[in-house]
Automatic annotation (TrEMBL), chain A:
Entry keyword annotation includes Cell inner membrane: yes
Name of the featured protein: Iron(III) transport system permease protein
Domain of life: Bacteria
Keyword terms of this UniProt record: Cell inner membrane, Cell membrane, Membrane, Transmembrane, Transmembrane helix, Transport
Transmembrane domains' residue ranges: 12-37, 57-80, 92-117, 129-153, 174-199, 229-252, 273-298, 318-344, 356-376, 382-401, 440-457, 490-510
Protein topology in the membrane: Multi-pass membrane protein
UniProt organism field: Thermus arciformis
Example of a GO biological process term: transmembrane transport
Subcellular location field: Cell inner membrane; Cell membrane
TrEMBL record, chain B:
InterPro entries tied to this protein: Ferric-bd
Signal sequence coordinates: 1-18
Domain of life: Bacteria
Keyword Nucleotidyltransferase listed: no
Binding positions (Fe cation): Y214, Y215
GO MF entries: metal ion binding
Protein name: Iron(III) transport system substrate-binding protein
Keywords assigned by UniProt, alphabetized: Iron, Metal-binding, Signal
Organism of this sequence: Thermus arciformis
Cellular component aspect of the GO annotation: outer membrane-bounded periplasmic space
The family this protein is said to belong to: Belongs to the bacterial solute-binding protein 1 family.
Pfam families listed in its UniProt record: SBP_bac_11
From TrEMBL, chain C:
SUPFAM superfamilies, A to Z: MOP-like, P-loop containing nucleoside triphosphate hydrolases
GO biological-process terms attached to the record: quaternary ammonium group transport
CDD domains noted in UniProt: ABC_Carb_Solutes_like
Keyword Cell membrane among record annotations: yes
PANTHER family: SPERMIDINE/PUTRESCINE IMPORT ATP-BINDING PROTEIN POTA (PTHR42781), SPERMIDINE_PUTRESCINE IMPORT ATP-BINDING PROTEIN POTA (PTHR42781:SF4)
Name assigned to this protein: Iron(III) transport system ATP-binding protein
Gene Ontology molecular functions: ABC-type ferric iron transporter activity; ATP binding; ATP hydrolysis activity
Gene3D superfamilies: P-loop containing nucleotide triphosphate hydrolases
């Protein structure tokens, strides 16, 4: 269906929020351009035209490709194992596998570093440079892909695979020829999140001494107190991100994947693993160990080296984190729904532009994002400044992209015909959406919401700068302690972040049960 | 959703009604909070704090412009404070405040130093004898080369960059370049943070590295045997790094802000800095740790410089040019 | 039929990219009737249904329901039921939930149950769609579309995914339900037998145009174009010369249903011909014999100046075999078709 004038009134409930959301995300872009224009041309030339930038570009791309490859090799088989096989305890396994998401990157990489190498608690060589960054980033980001693929596996129509089998394909051939193409939207949206993470990540790469664009931005803000040149580098980074988005959009355009058969699908029969089960466990063990157990073990080990001084404010920080992250996740989902709906159901330049904008918002360095909102909110909504409402709003804008992927791929698996059927039964587009599409989407909604929630709990610069005064959350407390190198005191807060997120991953996996 | 928003906005507006002092802090919450509590108890004033890194705080202040709610700016580095002064964010302070610290009062008179850290050389006492160690930071590369010692450094850390700026200010660009190149020739291991580097010395991964004194103090307090070496008096390797605080031009609570700075320079608060994080106080009458030098001696170690005018940008450009950053 | 039409289409045009799918369709559907749109796949019939339902907006033309222009009205405000080809049952709702979906008010469940009862699905009301067979899903889809009491129900190939045995029976049931409830229905199909047996009237579509509308008998017996003649069962297309009440053809004079003059193309159904012993009428040779139980179709090549094959329908007991020489007898009427005979397709079938 193309977007036409007669449709507009019915679609307003989608269009209006979509436009507002797009505007909210675009605001920081405007800010970056404003700042960039302040640059002194001579100094700018020095920053932008230095040969080092080429090296940074190459490093960034090499890391991006490596991480995408490694996360796919991890997430695809793991998502399959935990959805489509008879593996025992696959639900628990899925929970564990999604948990590395709960560990803030800045903590994870730090403790992993401290724990490895000579004298470290772990008998491993110190992770450094490209391979170190590749490994750490992959183990931090693969859950995005894992969750996205899981949702897609569960939404697949098994009859397609069966059809391929009946046409003489082996299970493996059927998987590659039929199932994999169906998984592509989920794969792409997962890749997009992972990619954006890699592009925007500076904590890990700086710790591992691997220089990328985001690292250069980080240095510029933190070491040189320079907002102007950092804005230029950020715009560079956005250009890269824009390229990534364009690529994803081009690939996605060729996929039209709503189920075409009967209006409902069955659950696939689980694949029997038999003697392969131990191997499956082994495969699942690696990321659990490296992404979860190891950092935590190292964290506690490191913590135990320093004397501890009380656990003040643990509950308060927990409450504050939840109070900001929960509404932010809800709001992000609420903003993602109309965007994804318009993008999938009424594919047009405008709709996909808005959708892409959300991803750009995610790729803007969070510090720049926070500064932009300080700038604009004080000038236009001063009463909101320093309020929890503003923090929630900005977190939602920033994390919107995390919710968009799962919702979008879920939406692609709901046949449009169901909405049309509801329309002919007397429902407006909005009501049809809520009565038919939404109930079928909620797995994607839950996945997206959980991702945003965890993102919000971990988030740091935005929370630091926009939270109400004296509003300390788990992540700001972890920051506050690690800033003074007090790891022992930071540990319980970091652990609580992980536990809170774990609870959410648990809810998410529980919600995957079929209706 | 809209209703939730309004409720939240109203909720937070209520909090702002009570007259409070607003502090923007680049220093960590774990350090600041007990001091703030002490101040509140003593004065009956309410204090709210926004935390961040120096850079974040500075950037936020600039974006807020004259609408900023902040009264007091309290930062980790004199470089950042100097930037704040240069950008006209700070209000000149009165002599009664500026007269309190024993030294390091900046030329701008826009902020007061609160505590001092010294750059020192940390080393593995099992590998290096104290009496062999060089008298100047500038001799460190030669010493390490001759002894075959493994060196670490923290090029991304602000104090290290301050120290490079110190070399530039005291010895000129040629000397600074020479030193950096000589260091680079040793293939030093770069660490993201000082605790990581000290842990590497402890573990035997490297033998020595220039760091801030309180990191060594903290490792020693935790029972680890790390060597702490001061270079000769006035050497750039002993560069003092000053933390400090100022009052923002936007402040509407001048009296309370002044009281807060006065409190930070009171013996009680200064004792806290020594005891809690091992920094040097800047007022008399504070009991020092056995890990620290006597105050007079410590003050004499650092070269005399206008810390606000450290050529930080030049240092960064040089580090970038040499491919260290 | 001088009653006011329930649905009227005026010059409906629709283009998808470079392809014009509907080229100006006019149609009237009268209250209470079942009208079938028949055409090969790709002829635009499904698009026409979607335009009527409001799921597609036409590029030009008007849709009138009970005399009111609804062209710009969204689907939910048209009161038109739709049974989708794949049924589009809501997978998260039970059979009852599906049927009750379009109903409002306190008694919606009772009314939904009544609708289920009508299609004989009361026993299955709590099943989810994936627990139902194709035929059962079909009935739920119909019940769901009919439950809100629409003025008009549109059915898009509703029987195509049922197996042959079930199809005839279901068709009968659906027709009964539609007639009982007095619902006006517009059905789209590519199956001529289905169209002929199910509909009160039918329309034949081709390439985005509606070629002919009429009762099954009218369209079958008086096709206006070669396509219509051929699409609704088998026929012999013969060029001839109109002479008023009859036409001169290669089979000799053939009586015409309506008088015509000059060169023309004639549709002569196989049942309008009979075989006879050689000597009676033009001579031919049997080239194929198709026995279908209730009747028997011969393919006969004419042995004369014109090389042509014709189809002849005989009673099952006809004695002729392949290779036999036979005479041909015209026992029915031919229909003169529109268009010039020279443009007519060659071949008999």
């Amino acid at each position: 269906m193309t977007l036409r004038l007669p449709h507009l009134p019915g679609l307003l409930p989608f269009l209006l929020p979509a436009l507002l959301t797009g505007g909210g995300v675009a605001l920081p872009l405007v800010y970056l351009v404003l700042r960039a224009l302040e640059a002194d041309p001579l100094a700018l030339r020095e920053i932008l035209l230095r040969p080092k930038n080429l090296e940074l570009l190459w490093n960034t791309l090499a890391l991006l490709l490596g991480v995408l490859l490694l996360t796919t090799l991890l997430a695809l088989p793991l998502a399959f194992l935990t959805t489509r096989t008879d593996l025992k305890g696959k639900r628990l396994l899925a929970l564990l596998l999604a948990l590395p998401l709960a560990l803030p990157g800045y903590v994870g990489a730090f403790v992993l570093l401290a724990a490895t190498g000579p004298g470290g608690v772990l008998p491993l060589p110190r992770l450094e440079g490209y391979w170190g960054a590749l490994l750490v980033l992959s183990f931090i980001t693969y859950p995005y892909l894992f969750l996205s693929l899981r949702a897609a596996f569960l939404g697949l129509d098994p009859s397609l695979e069966e059809a391929a089998r009946s046409l003489g394909q082996t299970p493996l051939q059927a998987f590659f020829k039929v199932t994999l193409p169906q998984l592509l939207p989920a794969l792409l949206s997962g890749h997009l999140l992972v990619g954006l993470h890699v592009l925007g990540e500076f904590g890990t790469v700086s710790l591992l001494k691997y220089e990328t664009f985001s690292y250069a931005i980080y240095l510029q803000y933190n070491a040189a107190f320079d907002r102007v040149y950092a804005a230029w580098l950020a715009l560079f980074l956005l250009l890269l991100t824009g390229g990534l988005l364009l690529l994803e959009g081009l690939l996605l355009r060729r996929l039209a994947l709503a189920r075409t058969g009967k209006g409902s699908s069955r659950q696939a029969k689980p694949v029997r693993l038999g003697p392969w089960a131990p191997l499956a466990y082994l495969l699942a063990l690696a990321p659990v160990l490296l992404g979860l157990a190891l950092p935590f073990y190292a964290l506690f080990h490191l913590a135990s080296r320093f004397p501890r001084e009380g656990l003040g404010g643990l509950y308060e920080a927990l409450f504050h984190s939840a109070l900001a992250a929960f509404p932010a996740a809800l709001l992000a989902v609420g903003m993602a729904l109309p965007l994804a709906y318009l993008g999938v159901r009424y594919p047009s330049f405008a709709a996909s532009f808005l959708e892409r904008l959300a991803y750009l918002g995610y790729a803007i360095p969070p510090l720049a994002f926070a500064l932009a909102w300080i700038f604009f909110s004080l000038r236009s909504l001063p009463f909101l400044y320093g309020s929890l409402a503003l923090l929630v709003l900005v977190l939602a804008f920033h994390l919107l992209a995390e919710t968009l992927g799962p919702i979008r791929s879920a939406l692609r698996q709901v046949p449009r015909r169901l909405e049309e059927a509801a329309r002919t039964l007397g429902e407006t587009p909005t009501r049809a959406f809520f009565r038919v599409t939404f109930p079928l989407l909620w797995r994607g909604v839950a996945a997206g919401g959980a991702l945003a929630f965890m993102g919000a709990v971990k988030e740091l610069p935005i929370t630091l700068l926009l939270a109400p005064m004296g509003y300390s959350t788990l992540s700001t407390r972890v920051f506050g302690y690690t800033q003074e190198a007090m790891f022992a005191e930071a540990a319980p807060f970091a652990l609580l972040i992980a536990l809170l997120s774990a609870a959410f991953v648990g809810v998410l996996l529980w919600s995957e049960r079929r209706f | 959703m809209k209703r939730l928003f309004l409720t939240l906005a109203a909720f937070s507006a209520l909090g702002a009604l009570a007259q409070t002092l607003t502090v923007y802090s680049g220093r960590g919450q774990s350090l600041v909070e007990p001091l703030v509590k002490g101040f509140e108890a003593e004065t009956g004033l309410r204090v709210q704090v926004r935390y961040g890194t120096d850079a974040q705080i500075l950037a936020a202040l600039q974006e807020e412009g004259n609408r900023s709610p902040a009264d007091v700016l309290w930062l980790n580095t004199s470089g950042a404070l100097g930037q704040a002064a240069a950008k006209g964010l700070l209000r000149p302070l009165g002599e009664s405040l500026l007269g309190k610290p024993l030294g390091f009062v900046p030329g701008s008179k826009a902020w007061v130093p609160v505590t001092m850290r010294l750059r020192v050389l940390a080393y593995n006492p099992n590998k290096v004898k104290a009496e062999e160690l060089p008298q100047s930071l500038l001799d460190l590369p030669r010493f390490a080369r001759e002894k075959g010692l493994r060196v670490g450094w923290t090029p991304t850390y602000s104090s290290f960059q301050d120290m490079v700026a110190g070399i530039l200010a005291l010895h000129g660009e040629a000397k600074a370049r020479e030193w950096l190149l000589a260091m680079k020739a040793l293939a030093p291991k770069a660490y993201p943070s000082n605790p990581a580097m000290l842990d590497a010395i402890r573990a035997g991964e490297i033998d020595l590295g220039s760091t801030n004194h309180y990191y060594v103090v903290r490792f020693r307090r935790a029972g680890y045997n790390l060597g702490l070496h001061h270079f000769k008096e006035g050497d750039v390797g002993n560069l003092a790094l000053v933390t400090g605080a100022g009052i923002l031009k936007t402040s509407k609570n001048l009296a309370a802000a002044t009281r807060f700075l006065t409190y930070l320079l009171s013996p009680k608060a200064q004792q806290y800095f020594v005891g809690n994080i091992g920094e040097y106080p800047l007022v008399k009458g504070v009991v020092l740790d056995p890990n620290l030098l006597p105050l007079e001696e410590a003050l004499a170690k650092s070269p005399r410089l206008d810390f606000e005018k450290l050529p930080l940008e030049q240092a960064l450009r040089l580090l970038r040019e040499l491919g260290i950053l | 039929m001088e009653r006011a039409p329930l649905l009227e289409l005026q010059g409906i045009r629709k283009r998808f990219g470079g392809l014009e799918v509907l080229k100006g369709v006019d149609l009237r559907v009268y209250p209470g009737e079942i009208l079938a749109l028949l055409g090969p796949s790709g002829c635009g019939k499904t698009t026409l249904l979607r335009v009527i339902a409001g799921l597609e907006a036409p590029d030009a033309g008007r849709v009138l329901l009970q005399g009111q222009d609804v062209t710009l009205l969204p689907p939910e405000r048209r009161g038109v039921g739709f049974v989708f080809q794949d049924y589009a049952l809501f997978p998260h709702l039970s059979a009852l939930g599906n049927v009750a979906f379009g109903l409002k008010g306190k008694d919606r469940l009772q009314r939904a149950q009544k609708a289920l009862e009508r299609v004989g699905m009361t026993l299955f009301q709590n099943r989810k769609p994936h627990e139902l067979s194709g035929g059962q899903q079909q009935r739920i889809a119909l019940a769901r579309a009919l439950a809100p009491g629409p003025k008009l129900v549109l059915l898009d190939e509703p029987f195509s995914s049922l197996d042959a045995g079930l199809r005839a029976a279901t068709r009968e049931e659906v027709r009964k339900v539609l007639k009982e409830t007095g619902t006006t229905a517009l059905l789209v199909t590519h199956d001529q037998e289905e169209a002929l047996s199910f509909a009160d009237r039918l329309g034949v579509m081709r390439g985005g145009e509606l070629l002919q509308v009429g009762t099954p008998e009218e369209v079958y017996l008086r096709p206006r174009t070669p396509f219509v003649a051929q699409f609704l069962g088998r026929t012999n297309l013969l060029p001839g010369e109109g002479k008023g009440g009859y036409a001169e053809t290669c089979l000799g004079p053939v009586p015409l249903a309506e008088p015509a003059f000059g060169p023309l193309l004639l549709s002569l159904r196989p049942e309008a011909l009979r075989l006879a012993p050689p000597g009676e009428g033009p001579l031919g040779e049997v080239v194929a014999r198709e026995f279908k139980g209730h009747d028997l179709t011969y393919r006969v090549r004419l042995l004369g100046p014109v090389d042509r094959e014709v189809l002849v329908q005989e009673s099952p007991g006809a004695p002729y075999r392949v290779g036999d020489r036979v005479g041909l007898r015209v026992v029915g009427e031919g229909v003169a078709l529109e268009g010039h005979p020279s443009k007519a397709p060659v071949g008999a079938d």
